[in-house]
Structure formats: structure tokens, C-alpha cells
Design a protein that fits this description.
This protein has 254 residues and is α/β, with parallel strands linked by helices. The protein has one domain: P-loop containing nucleotide triphosphate hydrolases (Rossmann fold, 3-Layer(aba) Sandwich), CATH 3.40.50. The protein is 41% helix and 20% strand. It is built from 10 helices and 8 strands. The protein has an 8-stranded mixed beta sheet, sandwiched between helices. Strand 6, helix 7 (157-168) and strand 7 (176-187) form a beta-alpha-beta unit. The chain binds adenosine-5'-triphosphate and magnesium ion. The site of magnesium ion has 4 residues, from helix 1.
């Protein structure tokens, strides 16, 4: 069984950064094989992981409107194309969902692809799903079973409140989530007691477990400016050490 860890949170809070740091941690601790899923239509996880993307699942879906050969069973063809869309590296594999279909969705292809993706995910010990802001697409993706959902917030009361609202969407969307975690990102060196109290209050109210704080990081900032992958951060970088400690809480089932 693979463990699925998905990221959620409002725009720009650090979902993709956290996903990349998590993948780095899984690699470093030998927790493989890993499938990274970029489910954000404006895909950029690949950049933080330092890989190029040739084809997205969205493109395959479009192609399936016309290009399914008569001679080949539709399901087999779709599975073959899906496997071609998996980008393999030494340390992890990546699949990019790309743009969702516009009006006139080719639903048969969608259903086949969801099935094929589900099957593919079973080949991995860990599946890390980076998402766009919001939650609706998680159900659209048919990714209903998530072991750990990490809701990322900025270090503000309003941000934490929004994270709480996001956690509340799990039920109406009928997502099956094992544990919902709150991660407060870009935190200052000194955490104000008021923020800490509020975080605890919202976690209690919304049934979230508090994962911890990730501090504002000069190294992440510099890597971003230079467009350097976060996988290249060295082990003793402060944010890598912080993040690794937090991720162990999830991975060890604490
Ligand atoms: N701990 C941190 N320290 C410094 N900069 C950070 C940190 N976390 C994220 N950032 C920066 O904040 C910006 C937004 O981060 P990121 O792209 O990970 O957010 P996101 O939630 O994935 O955004 P989107 O909703 O657009 O997908 C990026 O420029 C990233 O480098
Ligand atoms: Mg992102």
C-alpha cells in the first residue's frame, strides 16, 4: 500500500515548496519509490525538483479525443500513454496533471485515466500530491483517499483561519482523509504567543493536528531567485532540518 500525502492551502502559502522539501526528505531517508504528482494546472513542482516536463495528463486527455487507435483496446492505450507521461529520475517519478478539460469534457477518457492513475499509484511506497489553491479539484481528480493532508498557512491569524476553513471542506467534498495537519510557513524567528494560542484553538476546533512552524528561509529565497531546485539544498540548511523534523512526525505516525 502506498501512503498518499497531499498539500492544500490558499495561494502562495508554500504548498509547492513544502512538497519539494518533503520529497527531498523521503529521498534522503530512503523512503522510496516515490511518485510526485503535480496537480496544479500552473505546474511548477517540476522546477523545484529540477526536472523538465514533456507531456501532461491533460494533453494526453485531449489527444484521446481523436488519437485512440481502433486496433488497440482503449484501456490499454490509455494506460500506455499514461506510463509515457511518467517522468522517471533516479530518485523519484513525477507526473503532471496539466490543465483540466474545458467545456465538453471527454468523460470516458477521464474515467479511464483516473483508473490508470490509481493503478499507477499502487506501484509507489509514497505519493506526494501538490495542489493548486482550493480543494475542489482534489475530488475532481478522483483522489479521494488521502492518508495525510497538509494544510499550509502563512503566519497570520487570518491565514490560520482560512486553513481551518479549508479543512472543513473535506467532508462536503467526500474526501477520505486520514489525518489533517496544519503547517504554518514563513514564520518569524520568534513566534508570538498570541499566534501560537490561536493556532492551537483553530486546530482544536477544526480537528487538525498542528505539525509545526517552518521559518522564513533565506536559502529558499535565494534558490527561488536563482531558479535552483530545492533538492539541491544542503542537509544542514536550517529549513531542511526544521522540515525534516516535522515530516518525521507524519511519517512515524506521531
Ligand atoms: N519558508 C519559506 N521561506 C522563504 N520563502 C518561502 C518559504 N516558503 C515559500 N516561500 C516562497 O514563497 C513563494 C510561494 O511559495 P510556493 O510556490 O511554494 O507557494 P504555493 O502555495 O505552492 O503557491 P501557489 O498557490 O501559487 O501554488 C515562493 O516564491 C517561495 O519561494
Ligand atoms: Mg504551488
Amino acid at each position: 500500500m502506498s501512503r498518499t500525502i497531499a498539500l492544500a492551502g490558499k495561494g502562495g502559502t508554500g504548498k509547492t515548496t513544502t512538497a519539494a522539501l518533503l520529497i527531498r526528505h523521503l529521498i534522503k531517508t530512503g523512503r522510496t519509490p516515490i511518485l510526485a504528482v503535480d496537480a496544479d494546472p500552473n505546474a511548477n513542482l517540476n522546477e523545484l525538483l529540477g526536472v523538465d516536463v514533456d507531456v501532461t495528463l491533460g494533453e494526453i486527455k485531449n489527444e484521446l479525443r481523436t488519437a485512440v487507435p481502433d486496433s488497440m483496446a482503449r484501456g490499454d492505450f490509455i494506460e500506455m500513454r499514461l506510463n509515457e507521461a511518467v517522468i522517471e529520475t533516479d530518485d523519484f517519478d513525477l507526473i503532471v496533471m496539466g490543465q483540466p478539460e474545458g467545456p465538453g469534457c471527454y468523460c470516458a477518457a477521464h474515467a479511464f485515466l483516473s483508473q490508470a492513475l490509481e493503478k499507477l499509484m499502487k506501484n509507489y511506497a509514497y505519493v506526494v500530491v501538490d495542489n493548486e489553491a482550493g480543494m475542489e479539484h482534489l475530488s475532481r481528480l478522483n483522489m479521494r483517499n488521502i492518508d495525510h493532508l497538509l494544510v499550509v498557512s502563512d503566519a497570520s491569524s487570518r491565514g490560520v483561519m482560512t486553513a481551518g476553513r479549508i479543512a472543513e471542506l473535506i467532508k462536503p467534498l467526500q474526501l477520505e482523509v486520514g489525518t489533517v495537519w496544519l503547517l504554518v510557513n514563513r514564520a518569524p524567528q520568534e513566534i508570538p504567543q498570541t499566534l501560537d494560542d490561536y493556532v492551537q484553538k483553530i486546530c482544536d476546533e477544526k480537528d487538525m493536528k498542528f505539525l509545526g512552524y517552518l521559518k522564513e528561509s533565506q536559502e529558499v529565497f535565494e534558490a527561488e531567485i536563482a531558479r535552483r531546485p530545492l533538492l539541491e539544498l544542503v542537509d544542514n540548511t536550517e529549513i531542511v532540518k526544521e522540515a525534516s523534523q516535522l515530516f518525521e512526525k507524519i511519517l512515524k505516525g506521531a
